[in-house]
Write a structure and sequence with these properties.
Layout (H helix, E strand, L loop, with lengths): L1 E4 L6 E4 L1 H66 L2 H132 L2 H23 L3 E5 L11 E6 L5 E10 L15 H10 L4 E6 L6 H4 L3 E2 L7 E4 L4 H14 L1 H79 L2 H5 L3 H18 L1
Parallel strand pairs: 5-6, 6-8
Antiparallel strand pairs: 1-2, 3-4, 4-5, 7-8
Length: 469
């Protein structure tokens, strides 16, 4: 049942579905007829406007053409008056041609009007047929939509009832689940809180122990800890990345100072690729005086020069809040040549970077080393030749002096032998004289003037004679 209010007496009365549908159809039919009438009038008005516009346009074009032809006729008439008979004939022919064109244009205009009227009538008929067809389609759609609305309303009521029941059931389940989840959440939060409080307490204890241990370390021990870290990092990749490299502590303090580590890498031919002097600097968090990186650059450059290294690198944990040194590899070559300052995490990258950069110039270094070796060979040959000449000259001088000494000694020996010869010859003469004198010695001469000896010899002689008998 539907309730309708009268627009005049403002009384409400109820009607059934069929009566309400008839009234609604009447209202819609009247509205449709009114809209159709308005659209037909609008189409008629548009048609009239289009016809008037086309007529005006064609008339304007004809007037323009007529005025143009009139001007042309006037020009031809002027020429006709000024020209000969032949010119008059040409003007007549031109005039007849213009008139023919004008008649043709008039016929075309009439034909266009007829075509326009026929097209207008055809459009009106098509529009009326389409409107009727549309009205019938709309009525059918309205009836179908009403039936669908009724079915949808019933289905909606049923669906709403089912949905409400399902939602209420889910609500109860979710409520129970939420209560369980809340309880589990509270238990989990409590357990997690206890767990993390225990972990935080253990971590705080560990941090306190580390701080205490770090506070007990001396400055040298802190530095040695950084050195051990760098040495461990290098030895970890030494066999694969730097198989022929030399990386050891600098223990040569003959010049009064020394660095921490020296890195040298060579190729297969023994040519040095790159050499780096490393200095590691660290400090305790509780150190009263905080060192600066610039305080160690001069000494590092001195050590690099004295040890014959090409590059110098300061691995530093000093100035931990400096954005400059925390940004990465810092080039301080503007202060000291070929010098860098890095954090410990860039220790291996700076070695790799400098080594790869030096590899590009390895060929030139090899050629330079070869030229130096050749120059050294030539220099060594010249030095050996000079040494041989000097030794030969020295030996010749020594031999010459010894030869002269020997000649002098020989001369002296000859003189000495001559003297000895003369002495020997003199001795020989003396011996010969002595021999002659000895040959002249007899018993008689010996006992002459010595009666005692004469008596003795006589007795001996007599005794010898008696023994013989």
């Amino acid at each position: 049942m539907h309730e309708i209010i009268c627009p005049h007496c403002h009384k409400a009365f109820k009607i059934d579905e069929a009566g309400y549908a008839d009234i609604l159809k009447q209202v819609r039919d009247n509205e449709f007829e009114q809209q159709l009438h308005e659209r037909l009038e609008l189409a008629e008005q548009e048609k009239r406007n289009a016809v008037e516009l086309a007529t005006t346009k064609v008339t304007s074009e004809l007037q323009k053409q007529a005025s143009a032809k009139e001007v042309e006729i006037q020009q031809l008439k002027a020429k006709l008056e000024a020209g000969e008979v032949a010119q008059k004939l040409a003007v007549s022919e031109a005039l007849s041609t213009v008139e023919k064109q004008r008649d043709a244009l008039a016929n075309e205009l009439a034909q266009a009007k007829q075509d326009k009227e026929a097209a207008t009538r055809l459009a009106e008929a098509k529009l009326l047929a389409e409107l009727q067809k549309t009205a019938a389609t709309k009525d059918a759609e309205i009836q179908g939509l009403k039936a669908q609305l009724d079915a949808i309303a019933v289905a909606q009521k049923l669906a709403v009832t089912e949905a409400v029941n399902a939602v209420e059931k889910e609500r109860d389940e979710l409520k129970n689940s939420l209560e369980r989840s809340e309880l589990e959440k509270q238990l989990a939060e409590k357990a997690l809180k206890d767990k993390y409080e225990t972990q935080i307490k253990d971590r705080d204890d560990a941090i306190e122990r580390l701080r205490d241990m770090k506070a007990r370390l001396s400055t040298k021990m802190v530095g040695e800890t950084l050195e051990q870290h760098c040495e461990t990092e290098f030895n970890r990749i030494r066999a694969t990345a730097f198989p022929r490299a030399y990386f050891e502590k600098d223990n040569d303090a003959r010049t009064g100072s020394k660095g921490d580590y020296i890195f040298r890498d060579k190729d297969e031919a023994g040519t040095e690729i790159v050499s780096i002097m490393f200095e590691m600097k660290n400090e305790s968090d509780r150190t009263a005086t905080k060192g600066r990186n610039e305080d160690f650059l001069k000494e590092l450059d001195k050590d690099r020069t004295e040890k014959g290294c090409e590059y110098a690198v300061l691995v530093s944990l000093l100035e931990p809040d400096s954005e400059l040194y925390n940004s990465g590899i810092v080039d301080v070559s503007h202060r000291y040549p070929k010098m860098y300052v890095v954090r410990p995490q860039f220790f291996i990258p700076i070695i790799t970077l400098l080594r790869n950069a030096a590899m590009n110039s390895l060929q030139y270094k090899s050629e330079l080393a070869l030229v130096k070796a050749q120059n050294i060979d030539i220099t060594n040959f010249e030095n050996e030749l000079d040494s041989f000449k000097a030794a030969f000259a020295k030996n010749y001088d020594l031999a010459s002096r010894r030869f002269e000494s020997a000649v002098i000694e020989i001369d002296k020996s000859i003189d000495h032998l001559q003297k000895t010869k003369e002495a020997l010859l003199g001795a020989d003469r003396n011996l010969r004289l002595a021999n002659d004198k000895a040959q002249d010695v007899t018993i008689k001469k010996l006992t002459r003037g010595n009666p005692t000896m004469a008596q003795k010899f006589s007795e001996l002689k007599d005794q010898g004679s008696s023994d013989a008998e």
